[in-house]
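Lab notebook, design round three. We kept the backbone fixed and only want residue identities now. Task for the bench partner: fill in a sequence for the structure below.
Input structure tokens:
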């Protein structure tokens, strides 16, 4: 997968043709997606209500409802879920209807599975941001637009300040960041107000612990009495 897919990508597949469903699911799982596959409108409805997905692949003609109605349900959750319609309907008006409802793409059956994968990656880039909107260093990936950070494929549970600190340090790799600069960037605190920078030390300590517990290298180095440096080779 591309860098936008370094984290676990969850896909909901809604398709009533079992052989096609099985083929798509097997292919995507081999591509390291996490796939939940359902064959009915009702099952898809429950999944969308109860779970969050990065991409939904939806057939329009389901035995108990219209796939287009699922688009409205997904949109009502106001999340950045990508929606790709997979349908045997190839009329322009069918495509326009689904796209106007909020689908991100429309793929007509039959299709090549590699093309489907490319369409998924394209939607993810648009939804989650391309590589220009991510900061990567060794095993750590930070997505500013999504407020998410990962070590390998593990999402970190960071506070807002820990996330901002990690992003700031990684954006200034191998540069010395003074305590004053860090405080001003994160809290807007003036030098004269902050004689004591223990609160920065506490945040750095907690951030470093979370990174290392997730398997990252200890890149955050303390420059005694001055500040910190995010060191990479």
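Proposed sequence:
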């Amino acid at each position: 997968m591309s860098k936008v897919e370094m984290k676990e990508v969850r896909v909901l597949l809604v398709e009533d043709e079992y052989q096609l469903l099985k083929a798509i699911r097997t292919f995507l799982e081999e591509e390291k997606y996490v796939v939940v596959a359902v064959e009915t409108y009702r099952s898809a409805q429950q999944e969308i209500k109860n779970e969050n997905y990065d991409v939904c692949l939806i057939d329009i003609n389901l035995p108990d409802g219209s796939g287009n109605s699922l688009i409205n349900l997904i949109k009502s959750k106001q999340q950045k879920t990508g929606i790709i319609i997979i349908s045997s309907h190839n009329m322009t008006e069918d495509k326009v209807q689904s796209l106007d409802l909020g689908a991100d793409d429309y793929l007509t059956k039959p299709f090549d599975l590699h093309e489907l994968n490319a369409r998924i990656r394209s939607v993810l880039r648009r939804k989650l941001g391309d590589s220009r909107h991510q900061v990567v260093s060794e095993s750590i990936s930070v997505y500013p637009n999504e407020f998410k950070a990962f070590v390998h494929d593990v999402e970190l549970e960071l506070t807002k300040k820990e996330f901002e600190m990690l992003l700031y340090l990684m954006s200034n790799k191998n540069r010395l960041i003074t305590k004053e600069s860090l405080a001003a960037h994160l809290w807007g605190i003036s030098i004269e107000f902050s004689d004591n920078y223990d609160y920065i030390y506490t945040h750095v300590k907690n951030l470093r612990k979370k990174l290392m517990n997730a398997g990252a290298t200890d890149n955050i180095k303390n420059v005694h009495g001055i500040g910190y440096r995010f060191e990479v080779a």
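Keep this in mind before ordering anything: The chain has two domains: 3-131, 134-230.
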